[in-house]
Amino acid sequence: MKQLMKKSLLIITLFVALTAFVNPIINENIAKALKNGNAAAIASFFNNTVDLTLPKNEGVFSKAQAEIILKNFFTANKPTDFKVVHDGESKNNTLYSIGNLITANGVFRTYILYQENGSNIVILELRIESDE
Q1: Structural domains counted in the chain
Q2: Distance between CA 84 and CA 61 in Å, rounded?
Q3: Burial letters for 15-35: b for 16+ Cβ neighbours within 10 Å, e otherwise?
């Protein structure tokens, strides 16, 4: 019994140690907003200007402009799901998440570049590109 407890404690310790070094996953609220096609919720995380790339629309836009463009995209491509495929760290204390946005019109590869400022997340760049 004592041997089993030692093994269990070792496994738990290893699990906690390994998960402590895993890159953070994009904020749950952002993932949920993408899944639901909620442009306003996503825009609440945008920096004052955001580098936005969508099919047929690309540029650096104000927070308000980017929200409208994103809303139009979601109207034309109703999302049904969003799944994060990979998270990582980039240069200049930025993080990124890559995922698949599943819509009624197909799958779109999604790239989000963001910074964490304490408990706040600020999206600097959002790319939603056709997966074809």
Answers
A1: 1
A2: 25
A3: eeeeeeeeeeebbeebbebbb
Return the amino acid letter for 51. D
CATH of the domain at 76: 3.10.450.50
83-132 confidence digits (pLDDT tens): 999 888 878 889 999 999 999 999 999 999 999 877 788 999 999 998 76
Amino acid at 15: F
- Residue 38 sits at φ, ψ, to 5 deg, of -95, 90
Summarize the chain as % helix, strand, coil (round to 5): 35, 45, 20
pTM for the predicted model, two decimal places: 0.78
